[in-house]
Predict the structure.
Amino acid sequence: MVHFYRNVFKVVPKGRMREVADMLKAIHAQEDVAAARQKAQDVAAKLEAMRLSKAAEIVRSGIDETLTYMAFPREHWRRIRTNNPIERMNREIRRRTKVVGNFPDGKSALMLVCARLRHMSGTQWGKKRYLDMHLLITIDPMTAIA
């Protein structure tokens, strides 16, 4: 979603960013996929009326990719549509590798990163349950993203 928003913002004047951001957030605040797609069409029409046709085209062509998370149980939505855990892990690895600075070779860098990942997976941070997989049993994979 973040990259989708950024793609739209690239073609929107700075003075209109807040208004367009609110419209995009309204799409993803809908209760189901059908309502979100309808809202996306309404937003695209409103962008056309604001003379932001490139932004409207980006919304029309890319909205389905950003609504994929809605095929999963509602309890998972907040966690699926963001990449915060990955960003947190990358930040931790960057923090550790900055201390070393230059590595003698690629193997030593890989050993440090693997050791850090192993440590993270063994601590409380790695033991938290991110998603309740029992909720996925009810999903039919053939009709989930229709």
